[in-house]
């Protein structure tokens, strides 16, 4: 469907771009496929030849768009993981399950209460974030001071339980969630048609990621969060409730995953396995960017999404493994990640 929206605006017509049809049959000229008139130059401008693969520019732009969309989800999810690990030293393997719960929360809000997409975009992260706060209070708080491996095992088991329950009650097949009418259709950029909703996903993801980085790195609240993880006794001396701050931080990281789930609901069908399909790649993104690095998670998420999209064009066989190959190379050269701090 996306390829149909990405047809060149001037395919088969002369729109002032210098495109001219080849000579009519019977007319004298170079053999077919070797025409050197102005039309051939226009066609060459519509094609890219890399490593022996020739693709049209609209197809290339389409794959870049798909890569940016995937990168938007990678960035949001890895940002939530980075916030939780960087502030709390918790390896949250249940992040994919909370991402899935965000999509289901949007679906339930629509079907049970009639609340539309815009309300779901606000309420779903709050609902799932509240569930995350309960999880932190009941389970993760008991592991404070232990090796992060314990939190990984706990959240991994929790993810299996949540996914199993949703699959038992709602089945493995997906549930449809319609694109809001305000974001339907496509916008003509001149060189391609951009589906409005996919453009919205990219813009919303960038805005949330940049806002989160700004709060954590440039505000007094972010300074308190960082100080609370490094020296909680000193922060308590300022009258700050550190346990509550830790709970709210975990809830915020989970809410980022739920926000990504709501964005994904109209693109991917709402289904129990949607979190399990993406969480391994997201962890690879976090490792490449640097565990706990906010900026590293954002930049690496978008960049790897684009790289993965381009790989599907030029070398499809490696599209499912390119992220892990990059992760292995980064760990060999810089074990702390591209943006991580060396010990």
Characterise this structure:
This protein has 343 residues and is mainly alpha-helical. It has one domain (56-333): Orthogonal Bundle (ABC transporter involved in vitamin B12 uptake, BtuC), CATH 1.10.3470. 64% of the residues lie in helices and 4% in strands. The chain has helices spanning 2-5, 38-45, 57-88, 95-113, 117-138, 148-170, 196-218, 220-230, 232-237, 242-264, 274-289, 294-314, 322-333; strands at 47-50, 53-56, 186-188, 193-195. The strands form two sheets. The chain has a two-stranded antiparallel ribbon. Helix 3 packs across helix 11 (274-289), helix 7 (196-218) crosses helix 8 (220-230) and helix 11 (274-289) packs across helix 12 (294-314). The longest helix has 32 residues, at 57-88. The chain is globular. The model is unreliable at 1-44 (pLDDT under 50).
Please supply descriptive tags for the structure shown above.
disordered N terminus; 64% helix; 343 residues; globular; ABC transporter involved in vitamin B12 uptake, BtuC; mainly alpha; 13 helices; two-stranded antiparallel sheet
Q: So, CATH architecture?
A: Orthogonal Bundle
Helix/strand-derived category reads mainly alpha
Radius of gyration (CA) equals 24 Å
Spatially, the strands of the biggest sheet line up as: 1-2
Shape category: globular
pLDDT averaged residue by residue? 82
CATH C-level class is Mainly Alpha
Under CATH, the topology is which? ABC transporter involved in vitamin B12 uptake, BtuC
Query: What is the number of beta strands?
Result: 4
Beta-strand content bin: under 5%
The SSE order reads: HHEEHHHHEEHHHHHHH
Low-confidence stretches: 1-44
Number of domains: 1
Helix percent band: 55-70%
Q: Describe the largest sheet.
A: 2 strands, antiparallel
Distance between the termini: 48 Å
User: Number of helical segments?
Assistant: 13
